[in-house]
## 1
Amino acid sequence: MAEQPLGKNERTGNRGLTEPKQDWESVESVDSDASNDDRNFVPLTSDSDSFGNFANEEPIVRGRYFIDSTSPLSHLDSPTARAYKVEDKKNPTRPLFGLICLPDMPTQINNMAYYKKSQIPGMLSIIDWAPIYWAPLNQRTMAVVYNQPYGNKIFDQIVAEKLTLSGYDIPNKIVKPLLLLLEEHEANNLAYRAISARNLYFLDEKMNQVVLGENVTALPGFNHNSIFEPIERAMCNPEGRGTGSVADDIFSLGVTIGILVIGYNPFENVNEEDQIRKRLSQGSFNAIFGSIQFGNAAQEITLTLVTPLRGMMHDDPLSRWSCEDIRIWLNGDRPTIASASKVSQARSPFIFQNKTYLNPQVLAFDFSNNTKDASRCIQNDEAFTLWLKRGLNNSDKADAVDEVIQSAAFNKTSVQGSDDYIVTKVCGILDPDAPIRFKGFNFMPDGFAGILAIAASRKNRFALASEILTHDIPILWLDLQDNEESKIKTMKTRFLKLKKMLSNNKLGAGLERVLYEINPHLRCLSPYLSKDYVLLMQHFLPALNAAGNYSDTQLKPMDRHIIAFIRTRFDFDIELHLNAINSHAEDKVIIGLLSLYASIQWRLEQPEMLSLSSWIGGLLGPVIESYRSFYTRERIKKNIPQLVRLGSLPELFDLVDNEALRLKDKEEYFAAKIDWQSAQEEINTIEDDSEEHAKKVENNGKQSVVTVSIILSLIFVTILFTLKIL
Amino acid sequence: MAMINDIVWVIILITGCTILSPPTVLLLAVGLLPTGIAYFFDKSDEKYPVLCIGSLNLCGVFPYILEIWFEDHSLNVALHTISDFLSLTLMYLSAGIGLALFQYVPPVISSLLKLIAKRRLLHLRNIQRNLVEQWGILGDEVKKEISTKVNKNNQIDSETHLTPTAD
């Protein structure tokens, strides 16, 4: 089959606006590592033919939209999804395309449902979505079907010099349609989080109608080049940028407008870290567009754009333009003129690693990237606190840092004394607006879910991510914030709740539970289901049933991910099942598992699960052995194959864990034990006293003989005497 | 002192009997000779052999005593009886039967009881085998339960010993 699997997508002449690294190529390599891990974790049968249950499945979304893997539409690709032509079975002439998502990337299913239902103007319309089997990946993954735009990406047109956007074109052509979309999002307390120059399309061939591309195939902001993110989110790991708000979208819109007008990325040749340093020390607008003339035409064009861009790209979200400000500007009224972004500067420099620093935010950024040196500098060099006091003229910060140093000295052996903790805390003090930065995890509090999801999907730093909660790192950060107190309080409560969840290490709790609790649309990451895409409880048993065909059935069909997934997604009380599953007795674990799966099958009214029945049936040995009676065990063993063939887990459960049968077995066993014991006691008495007993018997015999002799002689004498007398 | 007392009384009784009926005493003295010998050799407290031999020996002697008492109460008859081979044989044979009874009957009874116990053992083991066939090794289970209890007790004991007292 001449399929075009997910190969490289050539992007030439993009004028520095490359997509971030998390594209198919890079993630595929991580993904393949992860799948190797999977194989180590759950031994699968070696040949790929065993995944036969998917082989005949066609890539059709909800039985209607056929995604043609031989017709890639690379110009519609997104960094985390590949585009292919879609054929609508009911209306074949309808122009559609489908995005095949990365299997390990959490998608925004809640937004998909909302967009499908609402059909918001200013963005590509989502037609439908569903997990499908994708043969080139040999596994299930999420597919999203969109209306295909007739035009191309706007930025590609600009790069190809087929289009030039002037400052006059921007308000009506670009901003107006997008403002409608932003207002719609703001009204619903949502954020688009995918506004960028490379994600804008012409919906029509005449290049009049502009729409935004997809924003659901990855975590919010994940696909952004960091230039499109507000400074605090730009400093985050892509997966930790968080859901954000429309204020973040407005920042992205500002950058997008600027880049569309100048036609290239001003940070093209600047590495990511230097971009951040520049933005921190100069403010985002000045750093990105400060030295650029917008338009080579009249001076007024420059002036027309500078004010809105300054307003939209303000680094302080509260001073940033709102949708209302943009509307005022579009209407031609005088908009609010945003003050320049505040940049704090020290009076004297601080030297760290032979570099001079005047800006505490930049220093905090570099501290977080050089934890060991930073910790040494903070703890051993009094110059740092002196600089805070005199250079920065901020004795509050100096006192707070002093407190951290003293606490570290007092708790040298505990976490509070570790380099990572000290640096995290000091960075928070220096730059409280920056993201939480701990052991290489840089994230906003609303991006913690993404951090954990990606760490779990790629299996590289999952356990390490738990330390964020264990050591209350988000609480540290939240304590340093001085605005929106009620929001902060809610977040604190949430993180404390998650920490409590984490502290329980039983199955159905711990880090996996936290993962599924905060990522309600994450697929189950169990290695057993790695070839599937289980999002809902309805998908779970059928997927596990299919896994029974290629998994090692000597192992139990469960792991921490499965149990945590069920705990968070199954709407029924499963405490009793979990207690059994967490038991130390093997038979109780199997019974707990069977009862849980039986309960799912029964409550969700699911059809027969032949492979799963057979899989669990093969593991019932310890359960059968838990019955004392040999005859009961034999009877159960005899009946199991029949029930396995029915594929009914509730019936299988009823056979092996019948309450009346267990009670009868217990009582009869107790009676048998008593019988055996009394027989043993009698045997012991007979065997132990044998010699003594023999002597006693002999003595009794002698006594008897004497008695008999005397009686006989007396009778004999009496008879003789009587006869003589008579 | 008590023994001397007994001997004195026996001498008085024999002397009295000899004065009252010398033929009876003579006949008894000769006829119950095996009982006397048994008495002499039997060192047990119960004197079962003496009683057994003596009672049957008496049966052998008693018909001749009745003859003296009811027919001819004279020393001649007594002498004639004790010098008669048949009479003596009868008297001593009856003592021999007593001895034989005492020697051979108790072991027979003992063997019989042993046989009954053996059969009971077989029956009990059969019951146990059937129980084990249905329920598994019940003995170990019981032993385990006992040993667990013992261990627990020991543990409690050791803990009690290890716990420092207020003193």
Note: Residues 156-167 of chain B have pLDDT under 50 and may be disordered.
## 2
Amino acid sequence: MYCLLRPACCRLKKDAQYKPPEVNYRAIIHFMSQSVKITLSLIITILLIGAAASLVQQNDNAAPGTEARLMKPKPLTAFQLTAHDLKPLDIERLKGKWTLLFFGYTHCPDVCPMTFTELAQMARQLPPEVLGDTQFVLVSVDPQRDSPESLAEYVGYFNESFLGATGSIDALTTFARQLDSKFSLETDPAGEPIVNHSSAMLLIDPQARYYARLKAPHYAEEILAQYLALRNSYSPDTP
Amino acid sequence: MMALTKIFPLVLLLLMMPTINAADKLHVHDAWARETPPGTSVMAAYLTLQNPLASMYTLTGLSSPDFKRIEMHRTEQHDGMSKMLAVPQVILNGKGSIVFRPGGMHLMLIKPKKRLKAGDNITLTLFFTDEHSTKSSLEISLPVKKATANTRHTLHNEQHDSHSHQH
């Protein structure tokens, strides 16, 4: 019993002798002024972000589609897909025209036909001079099932002038990444392929630069308003 | 005038007949299938399923002589991606309804026996179990339609137009 108590007793004694270490007030003041600096700069940053956000908000009210525009157009780098006419779909083919592009696949029963029905409707409403330099592209991320021939039938169903394209998984991945888009191919328990894909519609400017991103769901009148607004505010010199 | 007042309740009763009829069992309205481009192996169909009864039902599956298989799916937007998730069964609450609509929950009609075009009709059988595990089924016929744009407006109307029974 004595043995058991003894160490505790000793510890108590030691504790009684405990003296707090000398406080380095200068260091604390320095630390505090540092943290005040950090807090202040944080507050300023937040205020600046808020101000920037409200500016963007005001722009939104001014013209639909402005929020869809990238801060800085992103020039695309070399890629090669095959279009449904068996000609390549590459950078050259994007130049000189505006391109509205959607990733999808022909075995998609819901979202893809919905989107392309809206897109076809939007194309019918475009003024002829605008329609003349606009191309509509479906990039199939399901190359195993979507041949250029089946893509031709698919896009032609919605509009004779629509383009379908696909490529190797590698080529598709590289291309999708440039447009901040992604896709994945899985198999369901019944062995049926499941294709997931980005739902945004991408706008590429006539200099083959990724220019804007229109969020889903896509409706003819909204795509139309956004597209026309983006074109109207466009200046080819934008860096 | 007297005669009119006398037959009025009768007319009213006659007018109510179809409603009474529809009100005592599960029924479907606004059903249609989307015409798809040639060469595709799946179609989507949409409908509203109404349960006027107080008891709950489970929609356990569907079949059709016109297709190899029918599944229930839900389109979901997740992390900027469009995903289709299989829904094995759907609960239909008492006095409740289920809406299968574009961009949401839909029926996936897999591998049509022949290409179906706008104007064709599809026969569908819906299978249910009730709270006592009693099985029942409902056979419906729905038209294939070529979808028009502005689905949002169509959707909007559909939601407010739930009285136009057409089964």
Note: The first strand of chain A starts at residue 69 and ends at 75.
